């Protein structure tokens, strides 16, 4: 089983974050076994910035198609510790396992913490 936190850490070092200085990396594993990486890429027009988590998810969809499901995901922000933002949680939920069982790992107090999507976003928006 690949160490997604280590891969997220490595890809975070490639983040383009000249404005926020928050270098975020994400590594995810899909149900089919694919591993996808993403980092945040900022833009002077903040609305055009993409988070690391969404970058990795969009790459997974591009490779596996619209039926892609995330088995587990890890996110790291160099020098900081926090879970994914609300926008990323909503996109993650779109491609989560049924009942929000996708596992999401991030650092808290220097230690890995794993939560399910249902725990991170209990009242997910849906149509």
Question: What does this protein structure show overall?
Answer:
InterPro entries: APOBEC/CMP_deaminase_Zn-bd, CMP_dCMP_dom, Cyt/Deoxycyt_deaminase, Cyt_deam_tetra, Cytidine_deaminase-like. Belongs to the cytidine and deoxycytidylate deaminase family. The protein is an alpha+beta fold and 127 residues long. The chain has a single domain (4-120), classed as Cytidine Deaminase, domain 2 (3-Layer(aba) Sandwich), CATH 3.40.140.10. It is 28% helix and 25% strand. The chain is globular, with a radius of gyration of 13 Å. 35% of the residues are buried.
Offer a concise description of the structure.
This protein is 28% helix and 25% strand.
What order do the strands of the largest sheet run in, or round the barrel if closed?
2-1-3-4-5
- The CATH superfamily turns out to be Cytidine Deaminase, domain 2
CATH C-level label: Alpha Beta
Shape: globular
| SS elements, strand count | 5
Radius of gyration over C-alpha positions, nearest whole angstrom: 13 Å
Q: Roughly what percent helix?
A: 25-40%
Q: How many domains comprise the coordinates?
A: 1
Topology:
Layout lengths: L3 H9 L11 E7 L4 E5 L12 H13 L5 E8 L8 H9 L8 E6 L2 E6 H4 L7
Parallel strand pairs: 3-4
Antiparallel strand pairs: 1-2, 1-3, 4-5
């Amino acid at each position: 089983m690949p160490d997604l936190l280590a891969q997220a850490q490595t890809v975070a070092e490639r983040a383009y974050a000249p404005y926020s200085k928050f270098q975020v990396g994400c590594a995810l594993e899909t149900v089919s076994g694919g591993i996808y990486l993403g980092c945040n890429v900022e833009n002077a027009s903040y609305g055009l910035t993409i988070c690391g988590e969404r970058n990795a998810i969009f790459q997974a969809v591009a490779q596996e198609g619209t039926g892609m499901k995330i088995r587990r995901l890890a996110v790291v922000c160099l020098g900081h510790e926090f879970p994914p933002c609300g926008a990323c949680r909503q996109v993650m939920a779109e491609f989560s396992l049924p009942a929000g069982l996708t596992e999401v790992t991030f650092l808290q107090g220097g230690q890995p913490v794993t939560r399910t999507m249902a725990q991170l976003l209990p009242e997910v928006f849906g149509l």
